[in-house]
Design brief:
187 residues; alpha/beta; Rossmann fold; seven-stranded mixed beta sheet; 7 helices; 39% helix; binds glycinamide ribonucleotide
């Protein structure tokens, strides 16, 4: 059995899709959802699908072994960041070399980096008058949105698109591709 831990900071619609995609699998499962935000929608989404949700704080993440201990205890093979906004500490990256991936809602290397998340990304893309945007799934290294790219998919931006409508298009791309890319990395 391959075990996945999903880290998310917010609503968690991607986390939900990933959990559902592997729900009936006998070889892959999402064991745990971890979040830095005790109000995150992802907590209820996980629990309603019978996946444990664990809330942690800055100290747990950056100055203790608490998260590492949980990941070890659950025999986690792959860490998936799905709308997770904190920089992953180097100690965790070293222990999970090439086993931490992130999804970014734009075509990296453009529109990435610290502070570029969610709606802010879509606002910047629309503001710049880009003809296309998309999603990037990449390995995580110690710099925000900088690790090796695994997969990208594009979407056209129409004249009447807004940051909100672009966010919806991007979410649909994410739901379609993220679980399959995760599966392909595991095997
Ligand atoms: C997703 O669009 C994801 O790509 C983005 O946050 C959203 C989370 O939505 N991640 C980033 O911006 C990371 N820099 P969700 O909580 O509904 O899955």
């Amino acid at each position: 059995m391959k075990n996945i831990a999903v880290f998310a900071s917010g609503n968690g619609t991607n986390a939900e899709r990933i959990i559902k995609y592997f729900e009936k699998s006998s070889i892959v499962q999402v064991n745990i959802v971890l979040t830095n935000n005790s109000n995150a929608g992802v907590i209820k989404r996980a629990q309603s699908l019978f996946v444990d949700a664990h809330v942690f704080n800055r100290n747990d993440f950056y100055n203790s072994d608490k998260i590492l201990d949980i990941l070890k205890q659950k025999n986690i093979d792959l860490i998936v960041l799905a709308g997770f906004l904190w920089l992953v500490p180097e100690s965790l990256i070293e222990k999970y070399q090439n086993r931490i991936i992130n999804i970014h809602p734009a075509l990296l290397p453009d529109y990435g980096g610290k502070g570029m998340y969610g709606q802010r990304v879509h606002e910047a893309v629309i503001e710049a008058g880009e003809p296309k945007s998309g999603i990037t799934i990449h390995y995580v290294n110690k710099i925000y949105d900088n690790g090796q790219i695994i997969f990208q998919a594009k979407v056209n931006i129409e004249k009447n698109d807004t940051p909100q409508s672009l966010a919806e298009k991007i979410h649909l791309l994410e739901y379609k591709h993220f679980p399959e890319v995760i599966e392909s990395i595991l095997f």
